[in-house]
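Q: What structure does this chain adopt?
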Amino acid sequence: IDSITPQSGQAGTFVTITGTNLLAGSTAQTVSFAGISASSISFANESIVVARISGQTVLQDRTGLVTIGLLNGQSTQSTSGTISNPTTISFTVKPPGQITSITPTRGQGNTRVTITGTQLFGYGQNVSQVTFATVPASIIFANTTTV
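A:
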């Protein structure tokens, strides 16, 4: 394994693993990220494997190796280099964001609501949608702790 992109993510993140001879002539059967199984393998060949982190939740960052389990019983791990000079490429599974408060807790149409918490963007770039029950809301302001 030469690279892992991104090098961290939470449940549902698609991860691209690149390298050479990743499948060793076999078929990718499983992928795990720091011990957390992938829910699916979207694509796999000798140089690229794309897998999605399962919905298993972690409570804090969990860092470790990426392992591709092969149908022939072998595996490929995110270590490379030589025995005397090994290189490890780690992946970090992140906990999900968490809402800690919603103010006010009731309202009618056009009521301004503030949602606070941690990692509200997940580990992406922004909040794309907010709904209350099934009613979509307009996002006026958003950062990682307040929407």
